[in-house]
Amino acid sequence: MKLSTSYLGLTLKHPVMSSASPLAQNLPGVKRLEDAGASAIVLPSLFEEQIEQEALSLHLAMEQGSESFGEALSYFPEPDRFLVGPDEYLNLVAQCKQSCDVPIIASLNGRAPGSWAHHAKLIEQAGADALELNIYYLATDFTITGADVENNYIEILKAVKSEVKIPVALKLSPYFSAFASMAKRCDEAGADGLVLFNRFYQPDLDIEELEVKPHVELSTSSDIRLPLRWLAILHGNLKCGLAATSGVHTHEDAIKLLMAGADVVMMCSALYQWGIHRLARLVDEIEVWMQDHGYESLEVLRGSMSQRSVADPAAFERANYMKSLQSFRALA
Ligand SMILES: Cc1cc2nc3c(=O)[nH]c(=O)nc-3n(C[C@H](O)[C@H](O)[C@H](O)COP(=O)(O)O)c2cc1C
Predict the structure, then answer these.
(1) What is the SS3 assignment for 40-91?
(2) Boundaries of every domain in the chain
(3) Residue 192 beta carbon below 6 angstroms from any ligand 1 atom
(4) What is the CATH number of domain 5-327?
(5) Ligand 1 in contact with 173 (CB < 6 A)?
(6) Tens digits of residue pLDDT in 261-308
(7) Residue 253: CB within 6 Å of ligand 1?
(8) DSSP state of 112
(9) What is the pTM assigned to this prediction?
């Protein structure tokens, strides 16, 4: 059984990776993920704010008095709320490269073009095999249009690409009005891979304390549906690789996403919920399922249910929506 796959030009022994999270925030965590069978590991993100905070601290400490220094820094989150600082992050990349055999993908998380993009070069120099760029941007400014948002993504991507030679994957939000066209623009602007999708964590309200609370919710298998549709539509239409993140808990979830067109699937919530050993079990179960169903390699399986391959391509579009609503029968 040939489970090997290629993603971002890296040859992976199977298609199940771990996605960016604090599970990989230090070397022991990364080693545990490697021992648990991850074919590649994405490190947690280094945030634009962390890089700028460090640069600002240095600048203000040298240029100005301590009063304005303190005030300016209060705009940023407290340093101890970050997992690791920029220098520690580079150390982590270097340590992982020394100690691990699987590819290490670093992650940069930003929202606007800026000097922070230069950090991509430092990450490359530290030895990362590839970089995942997560653009977490909410257009809450009433004057910003959809076109502005798209241009912002492309500008950041180009800035980062201009810094490095290693492959750069872009972790995208699903909230674009014309996602296919946006994916194509990213592909043409040089993205080596698209990671579908970034989950935007929604704030919650505490109605007793009258506070807005950050709220991270783990996914469930039903969360694969959004990437599933878009992988199926994009497969075969772009030069870049495709990764699925969101809702991979079982081998069935992974197989569906691979059939839709993913080169790799990533796990995060399932590892928190069931333990990291879930990953190796999932790989074994994919293999058994493929054997039972007569698939000799991943290549045969991949994209076999993409929009180009299924008998009813309209099922991924509006037709499916009409059919679903009309065929729904209430239980009561
Ligand atoms: C606790 C936690 C921390 C995360 N940290 C990051 C991060 O630093 N950078 C990033 O791009 N995604 C981050 N993610 C998102 C995951 O990498 C993943 O894309 C998302 O959870 C969807 O996959 P899942 O359904 O397997 O959890 C985080 C998710 C969780 C639950």
Answers:
(1) CEEEEEEEHHHHHHHHHHHHHHHHCCHHHHHHHHCCCCCHHHCCCCHHHHHH
(2) 5-327
(3) no
(4) 3.20.20.70
(5) no
(6) 999 999 999 999 999 999 999 999 999 999 999 999 999 999 999 998
(7) no
(8) S
(9) 0.90
